[in-house]
Amino acid sequence: MYTALRYIPSIFYKRDPLQFTFFVTSRCNARCPFCFYWKDRKTGQDELTVDEVEKISASMGNLLWLLFSGGEIFLRKDLPDLVDAFYRNNHPVIITLPTNGFAPDLIVPRTEEILSRSPESAVVCKISLDGIGAGHDRLRDTPGNFDKAMETYEQLRQLGERYKNLQLGINTVFCRENQDNMDEIIDFVNTLPGCETHTISMVRGNPADDAYKEIDLEKYHKAVMRLEEDLKGDNSKMYHFTLARMKTAQDLVQRRLIYETVRQGRRLLPCYAGRIGAVMNEVGDVFPCEILSDSMGNVRESGYDFRKVFFSEQADRVRAKINRTKCYCSHECYFVTNILFNPLMSGQVIRQYLELPGRSRAAT
Ligand code: SF4
């Protein structure tokens, strides 16, 4: 497997992106009212093609973490080819594939193809679960989603028996509508065989219905501390890729920091978005992160040369604005790199690492 250790120099020297998020499509087969990408839902016209992505990825360096997003990413039938372009050109240590799990007939064969074509990467497949049974369907305004998500989960779990690079997990969006059901959801996820991670993402961005963001922060804190308690008490599992225990320790630090950031209403750590992290949407616009709408440029207009966009004067202006405004957010993905690549955070990560049980309980 590819190792994350090759990125240690980036703790001290931050220039090239090592965390890259690609919004492959804005199309979706669900109608979640808390979706932060709902305004961009389109028909799939003008999406970057495999040939274009091949050229873009060839202009980039190696990646630690390649994250796909959307939309429902598995609606793209060429998803395995898109992943393969990055796999060959950028050797990602971790590839993350989030899904609403609503279309097992598309998700399972496409995941299997990705697993077989990316043997040296840890392929993390995360299914969304925001409630149990009808509660989940109601919250996502998508009848039948829960049953389909569970069908997808079980089929992926079986795939994991044949492909050791698959890491299976659940993600729950924490919002006003489910904040009182967190214990029930966590209990349920703990019973799922083969589940290697359960993450809780605080609702973010500008959802179609802003009321979903009216959360009780103390309930968020209680839920993430419950996740921590379960991990330290060996009641829930960890990923099984190399350095997974370190990643879990970083998660624990991250959840506490997100709570404090929102509670204090200010940035508590330098943000490396736009320096070691970048986001590209389905039409080739590049941004420092998913939250800010300040474009660094467009790869189509730059002859598919990603570095030309990322090191442009326009991108420098965006980075300067991030430093100047000291914007803050709760987006989990950026906390990952902001913690792991900040030498001042290593003490906290090591402390959490030492409090975790001694072994990684892989899929059972
Ligand atoms: S703090 Fe949040 S909004 Fe600001 S640049 Fe970082 S990731 Fe983006």
What does it look like?
- With 364 residues, the protein is an alpha/beta fold.
- It is 40% helix and 13% strand.
- The protein has helices at 50-58, 79-90, 104-117, 134-140, 145-162, 182-191, 217-232, 244-264, 306-310, 313-325, 332-340, 346-355; strands spanning 19-23, 65-69, 94-99, 122-128, 166-174, 197-202, 277-280, 285-287, 297-298.
- Iron/sulfur cluster is lined by residues 267, 271, 273, 288-289, 291-292, 322, 327-329, 331, 334.
Count of separate DSSP helical elements: 12
Structural class: alpha/beta
Fraction of residues in β-strands = 5-15%
Question: Could you give the distance between the termini?
Answer: 21 Å
Amount of helix: 25-40%
What do we call the CATH homologous superfamily? Aldolase class I
What is the CATH topology classification name? Answer: TIM Barrel
Overall pLDDT level: 91
What is bound: which ligands?
A: iron/sulfur cluster
Count up the domains. 1
Shape: globular
Low-confidence stretches: 360-364
Name of the CATH first level? Alpha Beta
User: Rg from C-alpha positions?
Assistant: 19 Å
Tell me which oligomeric state these chains represent. Answer: single chain
Strand order of the largest sheet: 6-5-4-3-2-1-7-8-9
